[in-house]
Amino acid sequence: MGVSKLDVLYRRLLLTKLFIQGWGKPDDLRRIFEFRKTIGNRESCQRMVPKDYPILIDKVEEQADCKIMNGHFISPMDHYLPGIMPSETVTARFQFIIPKEWKSKYRPVCVHLAGTGDHFYWRRRTLMARPMIKEAGIGSLLRSSLRNVSDLFVMGGALVLESAALLHWLENEGYGPLAMTGISMGGHMASLAVTNWSKPIPLVPCLSWSTASGVFTTGVLSRAVNWRELEKQYATEAVYEEEIVRMLEYCGTDSFNMGQEFVKNSPSSLDNLQHIDLDADIQDLNVKRPGIRTGAVTQLHREKATIGASAAEVLFQDASKTNCSSYGINSVITNKYLLYENNELLKRGKRRTSLERESMLFMKGVMDECTHVGNFSVPVDPSLIIVVQAKEDAYIPRVGVRSLNEIWPGCEIRYLEGGHISAYLFKQGLFR
């Protein structure tokens, strides 16, 4: 199955860059990876958010067809990893939309998590929440959601705990049955949240899959990743390779090693990086950067000077014996230098290719560590899960990663015609 041309075109029209500040602080990554091991286990995670976790309603607005409540609470994530969340996200905000009159004795509510770029409520309120009230009498709770790679992991961990707090609150208020959904990144975050809920709960993740690693390494969004900054940091800070990699796990195996197999078997995935040029301060051999592990620059200069002097000395000695002309000597020296420079360019190109591969492997490893659903508990009842996927989705690659029905036996997968963008724009009715 091919990929949607609309997906590719839409991505090219957007100028947004992802992870503009790099990987994030190494210490933050260490804390996040350790925390992932805790929230990846349902038994330990469900004890982290008490059933009476405080949630406040700030405003209630009566409208013709529904009641809209705005509320907030302090993210439980801030209690366990203080200082790791941006200050503006410590207070979690939500909007709760319910019908003025329920159609039955039940008061069903679906929690909608935001997709990429959906930082406000109006889109989900207009396209999902209001129609769901009209069509099925279902209320909706809308949760509001990258500068660093680590930001994505912080958001994932925060949403797992925040979703638990909201589900507890809804139960305490007498709402139910409860369900969760989301589109694109929102669907993936909803999947992670459901893995840690201790009861059977319906889940409808739309346009998401088992891991986010492919999104940022082989999908069209990989072209929006600031690979230049990521490669620069990976090359100059040994901690990523020497310490962080050792913390990566993927369903009980080493994700970094699996990533090496991924790149070896998927060379076409590196085509996404062809447009990348490293900063001059990494490529330029005339700049002394002792932190760069790809070569000893100072030693290279010394060897270059020695080789040049030795070559010239030998050539002049030979010339005096054979009465070579000055022009001939200069020509030979020039050729020697050109040969040397070409050799250095070749070596530099190989180092650059190696750095690209290592950075991509590291990206796959850290993404799988914190976003692969195989690293989390299996939902209590996978038969309540309906996964909605687009056949030609260029944003969410399914090749080379484990299928959701393999990880969650019993879940249902439905495929829509078209790609990611067309499904988002024109298939909202099918999502509902």
From TrEMBL:
The record's annotation in Gene3D superfamilies points to: alpha/beta hydrolase
Q: Which Pfam families match?
A: ABHD18
Query: Native species of this protein?
Result: Callorhinchus milii
Where do transmembrane segments lie in this chain? none
Task: Indicate what this protein is called per its UniProt record.
Answer: Abhydrolase domain containing 18
Origin: domain of life: Eukaryota
Alphabetized InterPro entries for the sequence: AB_hydrolase_fold (IPR029058), ABHD18 (IPR019149)
